[in-house]
Amino acid sequence: MADHELKVQLLLTGNEIMSGDTVDSNSALIARRLAELAITVHRKVTVGDDIELLQAELAAMADDADLLIVNGGLGPTIDDLTAEVLARVTGVDTEEHPRALAHLQDWCGRRRLTLNAANRKQAMLPAGADIIDNPIGSAVGFEMMVGKCRVICTPGVPGELAAMLDIIIADLARRTERPLERSILRLQTFGLGESTAQQMISDGIGDWPGEVELGFRAGAPQMEIKLSINSAGAMAARQRCREQLEQLFGDHIIGEGDMTLAARVLDLLRERGATLTTAESCTGGLIASMLTRIPGSSDSFHAGFVTYANSIKHAVLGVDEQVLAREGAVSEPVVRQMALGAMERSGADYAIAVSGIAGPDGGTPDKPVGTVWLAWGSRDELHSCCLRWPVERTLFQTMVAAAGLDMIRRVLLGLDTEPRYFSQRRV
Amino acid sequence: MADHELKVQLLLTGNEIMSGDTVDSNSALIARRLAELAITVHRKVTVGDDIELLQAELAAMADDADLLIVNGGLGPTIDDLTAEVLARVTGVDTEEHPRALAHLQDWCGRRRLTLNAANRKQAMLPAGADIIDNPIGSAVGFEMMVGKCRVICTPGVPGELAAMLDIIIADLARRTERPLERSILRLQTFGLGESTAQQMISDGIGDWPGEVELGFRAGAPQMEIKLSINSAGAMAARQRCREQLEQLFGDHIIGEGDMTLAARVLDLLRERGATLTTAESCTGGLIASMLTRIPGSSDSFHAGFVTYANSIKHAVLGVDEQVLAREGAVSEPVVRQMALGAMERSGADYAIAVSGIAGPDGGTPDKPVGTVWLAWGSRDELHSCCLRWPVERTLFQTMVAAAGLDMIRRVLLGLDTEPRYFSQRRV
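Predict the joint structure of the above. Result:
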């Protein structure tokens, strides 16, 4: 079978997806992973946990596709129907698979749980199905042929799906004889919007090669730029594109792949043998949390302070009470004193301090919701500025936390350029 | 037409959704809005911007459904195909609709834009289609009958869709004579797994009524239990189910709707005029961040401490250095001193303190990765315990942070029962 003829469909199941209680991100993940092999998804169908509907849909899709990936319905509850449905469509019974049972026993054992009847149901699979390991969760995946279509059944829990996709994609690369070199290069940026980036590329790069597909994924706080190629022959062209993008976006590029601002900052601190502390008001611990999610963060991050109330800014960080009263908590002298106080209390070399108005309440005509003062740097070289990010509370917290990390990244890299977002956000 | 017979399907179009570059949240929004009328979505199909594929799909779906909502493909670019596809399926031509054109002229005028050819394309609609206003964007929606199926075409831009859905849902409520009451009850729980909950219900509630549909959504850290009914007549049955669930799960139920542990704790603190502080080691600011995401958290949460390093536990919270050296950071006396120190430094009435090993490194035979000491309560009544949660780092942080909040919730409620997860997790 020629690669480009592979017709792939997705069948998603789950009442929580149909009801809209859960936004389906699994199908996007599957599509992005398949894209690494230059495989595109042709069609996607979603139905609730209804056995008749699932059966009709699975049979029709398997009839039409070469590869059908089913997602969801592998769990222990009565509304998890995928194994039963696949058994019906292929005309076999479900039976207890020894390897699936062993996996379940091992999984429960490591968690000191007793294997109950509900769990045990997850080992009941269609007779003749091949098992796909689940490196994280209790339910194994499985696959079998339905006519000429290969049907792969995967778990709905996103982390479990992601882990299992590593196995499935590697296997698919082998079967379809596609090179498992990554055909996709992802660059992580902070401080660029999608339309700005698009416009800068249109204006700045006249001769974009046709064999390199350009994509954007705008997230919060980062935006990903994606360069995809369909053949190894396009590698050189992609490398040229990358160099042009690096020239265009410069220090707005944080790194490659899954790099985050927090991980980059921790890497830079580790290289320099330096430590960082945080003094957070409006971000309320989010900067500390972004740092400490990363394994090994304890090397460079020893202490963080969440000083929400004015009295605490004084008592814990030593911010001058008269300055607080005169200038207000959202002010340059306060945020600078917070940074200095945090460095003094913790002994850290660098600090990020933020104080702002996350909303929805608390704004004034002078300092509306979305206003934030940041201070960052070392005792000897402490910077500060006021930005305005008039967005919803949690998005505001996310963007401000990221901006603080970005500014420390710039200090650690010795950059003296201002990021582009300063020109839009600066008050 | 009787209410429960309304068969609704969704057709989504867009290459960016198929490729996984955009996660589709529109279909979840549509489903949630329909749920307000106790209308459930039966089936959902997603395809790329391919005219043949769209035409075949739309025709087949309209043949099967009573109501088909199409989302996407209304924009100005050549890959926006919905109007053309609907015209083909109904066998009419597209023509310029005066009302759609007037809307576009007005929209451009207010933005001081000239109406260009690309924009003008958005007024070309199937002959005979009825227009649905777009309160925000340039492209109007439209609807027409395809055989016995009502087909409604909506924009892919989320904000525009949301605004248009207000109109569509109000119209649908009128047509179907449904009261605009919610048919879905959601209960939030912490400390129960999906399989445990399912097993407890199977064992504990023998006579579950057929007209109340039971669903679970296992998230991290909370699990949602959902009770859905399709007619107002089932209200009483649902209420009985709710009471049975409350008896069964008791204080593992945090609240209704979108209630979170952090919001519940903040509500309880506010009712009592009390304040809370946090002393976090392995959760690294996550508890503080969960609290401060909630608007108004500053009423009851004034200060949090992230004390990652031992030296900081001593310097900032006054933990005894000899105790640290003798017992180690992950120990009962240390976590109790952290809680007391945080209350003393902040003046708060209650504290949560955690110290554990999030991994992947740092475990020992005595204290493997996943071990955590928690302390919670007030100066007068401080509790502590050691739990083991041997899961991946960020999930460990999430579950431990939630457990801390859950224990404070229990103290504030005056509960003296132990949560079920203690029996499994306690070391």
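Chain A has three domains: 3-175, 184-256, 261-425.
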